[in-house]
Specification:
The chain has 153 residues and is mostly helical. It has one domain. 50% of the residues lie in helices and 0% in strands. The protein contains 5 helices and no strands. The longest helix has 34 residues. Keywords: Membrane, Transmembrane, Transmembrane helix. This is Protein S-acyltransferase.
C-alpha cells in the first residue's frame, strides 16, 4: 500500500510541476519567443525551470509505468517474484477482493498512508481460491521469554 501511494503521489507531484512549467517548456521545444516565455526570470532561472520540467516529465512517465505495473500486481494478488512462477495463482480472489486484501475495506483511507481501519487479513494467513474464508488465524502474544505464539493448524 505504501509503495503504491508513494508512486502515485510522486507521479502527481511531477505532473503538477510539469503543468506549472508548461509555458517555459513550450517555448523551449516549440520555438515561441524565449524572451516572451521567460517573463521576469533571468536566463539562468529560466533554464533551471526548464530543466526541472524536463526531469519532472521523465520521472512522471517512469512513475506512471511503475504505478501501472504494481496496480496490475495488486489486482492479480501477486508479488514481483511470484510473476515468474508457473501455474495459476491460488490466492487470487478477483480484482476487487484482491485490492481489499491489501488496502482494507473501501474508504478514503485507501488514499492515505496509514494502516487500514478494518483489515481483511492478519498478514499471516490468506484465503485461497475456492475456499470460503481464510485459514484459522494465527494468535500471537507478545512476551519475552515465554512461548510467543499459539498456532492452529
Amino acid at each position: 500500500k505504501f509503495f503504491i501511494l508513494m508512486t502515485l503521489y510522486g507521479m502527481l507531484a511531477c505532473a503538477v510541476y510539469v503543468l506549472t512549467a508548461w509555458p517555459q517548456l513550450k517555448a523551449m521545444f516549440w520555438g515561441t519567443s524565449i524572451r516572451a516565455a521567460r517573463g521576469s526570470l533571468s536566463l539562468k532561472a529560466y533554464m533551471l525551470v526548464s530543466l526541472g520540467g524536463v526531469l519532472a516529465a521523465s520521472f512522471s512517465v517512469a512513475l506512471a509505468a511503475l504505478l501501472a505495473s504494481h496496480c496490475w500486481l495488486l489486482l492479480s494478488n501477486l508479488t514481483s517474484v511470484e510473476v515468474g512462477f508457473r501455474g495459476r495463482n491460488p490466492y487470487t480472489l478477483g480484482p476487487a477482493r484482491n485490492a481489499q486484501q491489501l488496502l482494507g475495506t473501501p474508504d478514503l483511507g485507501w488514499l492515505l498512508p496509514v494502516a487500514p481501519d478494518a483489515p481483511l487479513s492478519d498478514g499471516l494467513s490468506f484465503p485461497a481460491r475456492g475456499t470460503a474464508s481464510a485459514p484459522a488465524p494465527v494468535e500471537l502474544t507478545s512476551s519475552i521469554g515465554r512461548e510467543a505464539g499459539k498456532y492452529e493448524v
